[in-house]
Amino acid sequence: MTAHTAAADVPATDLPATDLPAVEGPAAPALDRSAADLAATAPPAADLSDAALARVSAELAATAEEYDRSGEFPWTGVRAVHDAGLLRLGIGSRYGGQELSAVDSVRVFLALGKGDPSVALITSMTVFQHVLQARTSFWPEALYQRVVADARERPVLLNAIRAEPELGAPARGGLPATTIRRTEDGGWLLRGHKGFATSSEGLSYHLVWAATEEDDPLVGHAIVPADAPGVEIVRTWDHLGLRASSTHDVLYHDVVLPAEHFRGERHSARQAPEAFFAGVGLGATALYVGVARAAQEFFLRFAHERVPTALGRPIATTERIQAIAGEIEAQLVTAEEIAYNVARRADDDDPLAVEKAVLAKPLIARAAVSAVQTAVAALGNPALTRANPLERHLRDVHCVRVHPPQEDTALLLAGRRTLAAATPSEGAPKS
User: Fold this and answer.
1) Which residues form a coiled coil (predicted)?
2) pTM score, two decimals?
3) What pLDDT, in 10s, does the model give residues 88-97?
4) Domain boundaries, the chain
């Protein structure tokens, strides 16, 4: 069965193409448009100035609490990001797209994360798929041209659906239990159960990690239209943070796909795409620095407005609060400087960018979490009251730890590298 669940008060025109009737007739020529045609008719580039990003961030913040409480898909925020052109970032220049540097990725997702991290995460999943396509040409050409054309008219959301209930995080290794096999007509049949599928209710296309059933299987991502028969979304997401990210389970009941929708690699020949995280993948971490900046904003406002009777003046005038404000700023400057430094290395094709990025992730995560926890500890009960946004920021920022590379993995890789580099050469004198 196919299940699409959306907020009851969302107008049909605000839903992605996959939640609308199948497009026939006038929209069909998008399949036949060449990349040159798309480039010639490209919309203006998105405004990535600080002021423009701040405006979008404020739009997202206006509805973040509402969606956090309801857990519904954040269509209002997604539409705001689309209208600003940010959902099309990363599309290759040959299609008239706006390519995204690692530094701008950090800037964009920090701003979106400050407004609504659920919308920021949903956006990042789509943008990262466009960046990958620009580098690898993974999609069938005609289909991707349609994605680009449709994305100009409405939000077209993409995501790689990889995690599984039994497997856990794919970054830790293993093969997917989700299977894909050839059909008699040369197509594919997909079957499996995925978990933690961010954006699930709003996706236009799922890129489903699957494997053939062979001794040395083909492994890769199958491109699945969200409205394909056999796609079922199971609303399992009831999480501490990012409650509006629609990170539900998805079942694939013998989904039939065309031959060109799956191109796997032999498992024995696959390599981990570390270099991708060293680039725009940093944005998925930077969005949580945005969460911490939002927490800081509330802390500073509260400090100026709170006037205890016994004190007779704002607590912002006390040395204790001033020192705490300094500690929070120090943590956030640390996180931002690490993120931007690694991003610049990636943009400059620094060969050390990969290993720096792997270790940067837990360092940024620690700093962001620490900044929010410091604010909460200082303010006490008001910080944990649902009437104030700080408790939401506390819940959201803790989600940074689950994204790969997770801390133990990053530290293990860094430790192995440093130990290997320090291995004495044979015959070298011992100190």
Assistant:
1) none
2) 0.89
3) 999 999 999 9
4) 12-156, 170-266, 274-420
